[in-house]
Amino acid sequence: MDQHPPALRGSRFFAVTAIAIALLVVASFPVTYFMPLATGAHFTLLRHLHGLAFFGWIGLYVAQTLLVRAGRIRQHRGWGQTGIWLAGAMLPLGLWQAVTSAGERQTKGVALPFEFTLYNLVDICVFTVAFGWGIVAATQRIEWHRRLMFIAVLNLFGPAFSRVLLHLPLPYPWLDMTPNLAADALLVALAVHDRRPLGRVHAVTVGAMALLIPLHAVEPLIARSAAWTSIAPRLFGF
User: Fold this and answer.
1) Which terminus of the chain is more solvent-facing, meaning fewer CB atoms within 10 Å of its CB: N or C?
2) Angstrom distance (rounded) from CA 113 to CA 229
């Protein structure tokens, strides 16, 4: 085991929430992926690669938080390189899948084929900024790094968890905003956690709450607006 001061090891919060997020993500896909796959349903190679990359990143995030919790910082940093390569694959796969799904909905005659593409675009952008900033902060600002990576994984959790929550009998726009607001609830939990080791809510936590919670609340309104319906096809090359 690497010998590092307790401050580098972090609290149990990030490891526990990582495991909870991973379990909820896995539990979100039986109906839409695992069960159809087991019964012989056909999925495109893109969908398989997309799922493999995103499941892989969440699994790696869990492993990384456990390594830090155990004080194995050298191994954590070594596996960080894998996370960078994996994130690099996730970005084109995520955009490609978003555009492909929009095209499929358009072919089927769905009234608003680009509605969910806005959510995809926002999630990919937030993940990219949080992950990239977290990598930059990894050596000099450990507490920033932890929270930025937490924000990155939350932006994978919300879309995944929507597979469960979208079956709830909630009217628009509450149904549409609920998955990401469920992820944002973990930001509130992070704010409560921050006060114990830091004596205050960390600046990254405050900034993420101030930006993401209002954004996720208005996303459904933007996604069905005339402006987005007009811009989206040109933006994605349709």
Assistant:
1) N
2) 9
pLDDT, residue 6, reads: 45
- Residues in the chain with pLDDT < 50? 1-8
* Of 169, 184, 180, 176, residue with least CA distance to 225: 176
Q: Is residue 196 packed enough to be buried (19+ CB in 10 Å), middle (13-18) or exposed (0-12)? A: exposed
pLDDT, residue 10, reads 57
Distances 53 to 41, 76, 134 between C-alpha atoms, Å: 20, 19, 19
Pull the structure tokens for residue 229.
């319906």
pLDDT per position as a tens digit, 169-213: 888 888 888 889 989 999 999 999 999 888 999 999 999 999 999
Determine the angle formed by the axes of helices 142-165 and 115-136, rounding to 10 degrees. Answer: 160
Burial 152-167 (b: 16+ CB within 10 A, else e): bbbbbbbbbbbbbbee
Ordered DSSP codes for 103-156: HHHHHTT-SSTTHHHHHHHHHHHHHHHHHHHHHHTTTT-HHHHHHHHHHHHHHH
**Residue 191 and residue 201 in contact, taking contact as beta carbons nearer than 8 Å:** yes
Cβ neighbours, 10 Å, residue 110: 13
List the structure tokens of 222. Answer: 């933007």
